[in-house]
Amino acid sequence: MANQPLASALFEHLRYDLSHVQGYDPYETRSGASMGALAPDTGIKAAYAKSLQNSFLKKFQDEIETGDVDEVGINKFLDANAKCARWQYAPESTWDEILLGTFRRHLCAFFEASYPPPPGEYVSCSDEKDPMPLFDWSGSLDWARVSYFADNGPGSSLGAVGTSWFEKFTRSPLTYSREFLLELYWSRCKRADSHSQVEAERFANHGCQLRES
Questions:
Q1: Is the pTM of this model over 0.70?
Q2: Is residue 193 part of a domain?
Q3: Half-sphere CA count of 40, side-chain side, radius 13 A
Q4: Residue 18 contacts by C-beta under 8 Å, 6 or more apart in sequence?
Q5: Where are the beta strands (DSSP E) in 123-183?
Q6: For 15, which of 26, 55, 138, 174 could close a Cys bridge (C-beta 3.0–4.6 Å)?
Q7: Separation between Cα atoms, residue 183 and residue 98, nearest integer Å
């Protein structure tokens, strides 16, 4: 096992674990098995096991340099931002005008409200009749409402050691690109004792990092 490639070792462990699934043999080598062929009477758990075995190593990469991956991700993001800045509206047909008009209508429904929501309640922004406005009634951006729906999102984050919620919030430093965003995030944490405790422990163990784009 000492000289066995990591991918092979992981795959052997997976096959051993899947061997405990009733009605499924991960070591089967009959014709067509490697292509995902299943018998008509295959059970649901056995089908799941087969799918997992076939896709387990699809995206596996050994010894990834996270610094290089972060740099590639940042460059792609900045390139996309630059393309957005250069974009100009130039409709080529009536359908283009309809598309943009529909997009504008939904955008207005998201940012504006026809009436104030009940005190202490937030209205879903997915319903056009009851939009969740991001601006207060004086026309200023309401950061409390913005942060109410804020989330870290799926996938990788700058400075994070992994992609799961646990790894992002408990095993990685808090990264930010602007001081006001950090202050906004701290103010949101204070609204929940459990969130404040998690962030206090993370700060003590990993600190904060300014990541300028």
A1: no
A2: yes
A3: 0
A4: 24, 26, 49, 52, 53
A5: 174-176
A6: 26
A7: 40
